[in-house]
Amino acid sequence: xxxxxxxxxxxxxxxxxxxxxxxxxxxxxxxxxxxxxxxxxxxxxxxxxxxxxxxxxxxxxxxxxxxxxxxxxxxxxxxxxxxxxxxxxxxxxxxxxxxxxxxxxxxxxxxxxxxxxx
Length: 118
Description:
single chain, about 120 residues, alpha+beta, Immunoglobulin-like, five-stranded mixed beta sheet, 1 helix, about 45% strand, elongated
């Protein structure tokens, strides 16, 4: 009986720990630009907000052009712990914002946001 109780306790504890870690991943809540949005350039503000703290010094943003070339963006000083920001100078065309964020749980999440500059 004690062995079974111990097994159940260990199982419940491991489920609680793993579920709390899963919720700590950096999930993108909002972005500027929004997916498939058309912006007026050439000067653009890039702003990504996440559901948890992200490590700005170990996260990255880049812009991919329609021909596949990639330009890394310099992140602005991180003012909010759950936000990544940058400025970009882009000519009219189609682009994909590529982001990579390191969350406080140590996991990296990535995503892409297609947009157009008019």
